[in-house]
């Protein structure tokens, strides 16, 4: 009855109960979460979102918001709640090259925003391997990171403000392009990393940046993570360093073995690899910067070999080796995955201690620690021993995770760097977070969503 009330209040194109249409949106990318819902609503404008929220609140229905369905912690997968897809909120409302602001609706994909910025001779610097599918609403709700955080920060650093429909049906309009606006709490920031628990983001005003003249990319072979820390410092020149990603040999081998069209740019293998971007004025400056920086790194024995991209195609090929890491791991049997941050200078100690701890729990398991090294963000994934039974291996998930989190805590790190908490780490957060933080999180949630209508199983 409540569902009929909802469907009769919306245009027929804005909802479906057809399980064949809904099915793809109930499975996430890695096949780790499977959901169910009686109804998917697909509003095309803010007023339809308000209608949905009001009816759900009055009828006691719960809502799970979903954008591109690329989230990695189960936050977008309903378990009986109404699935609210933002994909049809897909207009770019304005681009202003003077204020450097772009207003996009929540369901616009990140790639579409990047392209619109480019057309205005500007750059929107958020960059993720999922950018063709993930949406701006999802990016804000997870405070996504990606590969350009070294220079530009995470999503919350790239936003002027948001428009959101609150659980009480009110519209919060924070769509501004003002760089200075000290008029109380920064309410828009509440929605960044909120994972859909405080309302539906319907649009965001995003910060644009000058388009760099040239992006210079290089890949290097390294002996160990200690040299990677030193190399990171060595590669910083003014504000030009934009990306510093690191992957181990096992990661490179997985990509070369399992992903079509990938080629090893080096003649010999190396224990570790770093992928580096600098933003500079023109290609000649980029070549000079990369050559002189990497030559002196070589002289100091920080790197063993280097490839400097000579064209956009070569640069794309190098990036593909890193971006295909997640896809390649699907072919590596079971994998227990963590997305953590460690203070950069402690990463080598973390690897040494965590790798030992993993061998104690699961002898012959294969740590695959890779990722956004320049931000201290490691995707510390543990692959099953060769030939092991996958289910038996995965039954160690909690034990492995707790051991990793203990070491993360010891080094002053974070149990979630960029993927968020979702349902995956909700209980861990409650157990491990500072009690003052948890009570403030709960107070904000109950002030804005007292009936726990919005994404009720997620975050807290
Ligand atoms: C191959 C691959 C690579 C990735 N690389 C990175 C990376 O480098 N860095 C990184 O940070 N993440 C990465 N991710 C994770 C993911 O892409 C990001 O978390 C992304 O921001 C999610 O966007 P989405 O639109 O797909 O959100 P969804 O998955 O649909 O939702 C994510 C969360 O946001 C909520 N939500 C979505 N839209 C709204 C809205 N409009 N209002 C309120 N709540 C909303 C959902 O309820 C859910 O809790 C990667 C994922 C894949 C598959």
Can you characterise this structure?
- The protein has 460 residues and is of the alpha+beta class.
- The chain has four domains: 2-85, Uridine Diphospho-n-acetylenolpyruvylglucosamine Reductase, domain 2, CATH 3.30.43.10; 92-210, 2-Layer Sandwich (Uridine Diphospho-n-acetylenolpyruvylglucosamine Reductase, domain 3), CATH 3.30.465.10; 214-327, Alpha-Beta Plaits (2-Layer Sandwich); 333-418, Alpha-Beta Plaits.
- The protein is 35% helix and 20% strand.
- The chain is built from 17 helices and 19 strands.
- The chain has helices spanning 2-9, 19-22, 46-59, 110-119, 136-142, 149-152, 187-190, 225-235, 249-258, 283-299, 312-323, 325-329, 347-361, 390-394, 397-410, 426-432, 435-448; strands at 15-16, 40-41, 63-66, 82-85, 92-96, 101-105, 122-123, 159-165, 171-173, 200-207, 209-210, 214-222, 241-248, 272-280, 305-308, 335-336, 339-341, 366-370, 377-383.
- Strands 5-6-10-8-9 form a five-stranded antiparallel sheet.
- Helix 1 (2-9) runs antiparallel to helix 3 (46-59) and helix 13 (347-361) runs antiparallel to helix 15 (397-410).
- The longest helix has 17 residues, at 283-299.
- The structure holds flavin-adenine dinucleotide.
- Flavin-adenine dinucleotide binds next to strand 3, helix 5 and strand 10.
